[in-house]
Amino acid sequence: MTATPPETTFTDWLRERSEPDWTSVVEHPFTDALFDGSMPDEYMSSYLVQDYQFVDDFLALLGAAVAKADRYDSRLALAGSIGVVTSEENTYFQRSFDALGIVESDRVDPELDPATEAFRDLMRDTKDNGGYAEILAVLTVAEWTYLEWAQRAPAKPESFVHAEWIDLHANPDFESWVTWLRSELDRVGADLDERERARCLRLFQQATKCEVDFFHAHWD
């Protein structure tokens, strides 16, 4: 495997080797429909119901990152992100479920799509078996792809269900969080050997493919 050129950050190197899936996530037709208000309620409903099933596994992955981080400042930054997921984002889901008329059983125990199961399996396996850098790789994909697609929004759509989902992923605090994740992965990546870098790349690519498949699953 070719070493990272000195002028390229580790996260840039990972992203470049995750094309064309990376661009497929960031420029997916699903996001364009969010932007222009043409998203059918049935598509948004199925998407949010399935996305909500990631919350518990995502929190567990963040917890594993806190446990495996190599320094105190990193643990603080990661712990702070947990509060966002359990407050602002969770509130958005509940309000959106109410607005879309989603019944309680679909909120808490829906039938899972294959794309949802695959991403949950990846997060669980990485939590249980991955090191700090590998956990960061999966977290970075999940957050950085969403920042990039949300930043493409030309204007706020009328529906709060659409507008606030974009706002949750295109605001200064979230951008700072993604910037920190990238810098943290760049930092720990500098000390990895070639085999460890290869594992991070495999997980980064796998997570990116999961993101593509998840959008595909909720778009006709």
Strand content: under 5%
Mean of all residue-level pLDDT scores: 94
Number of helices: 12
How does the major sheet shape up?
none
What would you report as the Rg, rounded to the nearest angstrom?
A: 17 Å
**Secondary-structure element pattern, one letter each:** HHHHHHHHHHHH
In CATH, the homologous superfamily goes by the name: Heme oxygenase-like
- The beta-strand count equals 0
Question: How many individual domains?
Answer: 1
Structure description:
The protein is an all-alpha fold and 220 residues long. The protein has a single domain, classed as Up-down Bundle (Heme Oxygenase, Chain A), CATH 1.20.910. The chain is 76% helix and 0% strand. The chain is built from 12 helices and no strands. The protein has helices at residues 10-16, 21-26, 29-36, 41-52, 55-68, 72-100, 104-108, 114-129, 132-150, 160-168, 172-189, 194-217. It is globular. It starts with 9 loop residues before the first helix and ends with a helix. The relative contact order is 0.19. Residues 18-219 form the Thiaminase-2/PQQC domain. Keywords: Hydrolase, Thiamine biosynthesis.
